[in-house]
């Protein structure tokens, strides 16, 4: 990937949340939500980020957009280090980066009309006034395939799928280059999920968008992503192209995740080997020494508890962190 193709470069990103206790709120520990992840995202691609609930996917997305300030590490957007930006410089950069939130019920202000919700970014950044705002709202509603008459209604009058489309319209209002999709379909019915995914793909084709697509539904990630990174307890354990990940997973955690994806063929499903992980995910407050996956890994050895596995490229474009690979 050349520098011209690269839109986003994440280098050693860390986000720890302090644990405070007592009357004086002394810090007694930290939650290792994101613990040193690195990857690049190419212009126009969809980069999938998958893992179990609580592994730090959503925190990583919000930290990349600087909604959370990182504890350490750097995020470069077209060569500009977002971590160093403040005030007006950061506000201008936010026009080019938006987020579609996970919960369409909680991410829309119930006291605002749909028109006000979609037009708010335009007003905050001073991009339109009066009749221009009204016209732009109608354009965006058409873009996400909603009736322009919905602009005067309130969020509670819509279904989950329609609310998520409103959230997408709001994210598109400023014509961004990069959108973080934080599990945008997990709260929706299965029949609606495909509609929202098809809409996102259509918008990407027409507007040249770049997505960071966060999810735990591996079959949906396979459908929409170009490359996929697998996250476990705050770190990346594997990253490669979609085809390579699903045909040749190397990390035992990735293999376990993929073995749990149902196959719609009873003959193949009966012959498949399921990998059942034992135990619970360790606490991010006190992660295991060495490899973080070793407490649940079926092939863990002594070295796994003593040394942190290096993040290395084992084949062109295929990165993995495992002593046994």
Q: What's this entry about, in short?
A:
The chain is an alpha/beta fold and 325 residues long.
Account of the protein in words:
The protein has 325 residues and is an alpha/beta fold. It has eleven helices and twelve strands. The protein has helices spanning 57-64, 87-94, 114-124, 130-143, 160-172, 190-207, 218-224, 242-247, 252-259, 266-271, 302-306, and strands spanning 6-21, 26-42, 46-50, 72-77, 80-81, 97-100, 178-182, 210-215, 227-232, 235-241, 312-315, 318-320. An eight-stranded mixed β-sheet has the order 6-7-8-3-9-10-12-11, sandwiched between helices. The chain has a four-stranded antiparallel β-sheet with strand order 2-1-4-5. Strand 9 and strand 10 (235-241) form a beta hairpin. Helix 3 (114-124) packs across helix 4, helix 3 runs parallel beside helix 5 (160-172) and helix 4 (130-143) crosses helix 5 (160-172). The longest helix is centred in the middle third of the chain and has 18 residues, at 190-207. It is globular and about 70 Å long. The model has no long low-confidence stretch (mean pLDDT 89).
């Amino acid at each position: 990937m050349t520098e011209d193709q690269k839109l986003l470069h994440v280098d050693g990103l860390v986000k720890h949340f302090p644990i405070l206790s007592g009357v004086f709120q002394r810090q007694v520990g930290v939650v290792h939500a994101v613990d040193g992840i690195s990857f690049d995202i190419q212009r126009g691609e969809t980069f999938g980020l998958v893992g179990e609930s609580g592994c730090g996917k959503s925190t990583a997305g919000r930290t990349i957009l600087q909604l959370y300030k990182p504890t350490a590490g750097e995020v470069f957007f077209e060569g500009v280090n977002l971590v160093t930006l403040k005030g007006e410089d950061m506000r201008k950069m936010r026009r080019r980066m938006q987020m579609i939130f996970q919960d369409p019920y909680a991410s829309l202000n119930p006291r605002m009309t749909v028109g006000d919700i979609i037009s708010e970014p335009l007003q905050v950044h001073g991009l339109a006034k009066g009749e221009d705002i009204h016209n732009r709202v109608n354009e965006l509603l058409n873009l996400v395939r909603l009736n322009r008459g919905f602009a005067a209604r309130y969020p509670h009058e819509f279904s989950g799928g329609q609310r998520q489309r409103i959230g997408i319209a709001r994210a598109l209002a400023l014509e961004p280059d990069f959108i973080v999709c934080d599990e945008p379909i997990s709260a929706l019915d299965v029949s609606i999920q495909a509609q929202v995914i098809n809409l996102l793909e259509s918008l990407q084709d027409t507007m040249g968008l770049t997505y960071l697509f966060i999810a735990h539904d591996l079959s949906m990630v396979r459908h929409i992503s170009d490359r996929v990174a697998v996250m476990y307890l705050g770190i990346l354990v594997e990253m490669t192209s979609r085809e390579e990940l699903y045909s040749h997973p190397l990390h035992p955690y990735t293999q376990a995740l993929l073995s749990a994806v149902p196959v719609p063929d009873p003959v193949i499903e009966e012959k498949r080997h399921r990998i059942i992980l034992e135990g619970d995910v360790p606490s991010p407050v006190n992660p295991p020494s060495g490899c973080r996956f070793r407490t649940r890994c079926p092939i863990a050895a002594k070295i796994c508890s003593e040394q942190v596995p290096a993040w290395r490229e084992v084949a062109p474009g295929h990165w993995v962190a495992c002593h046994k690979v």
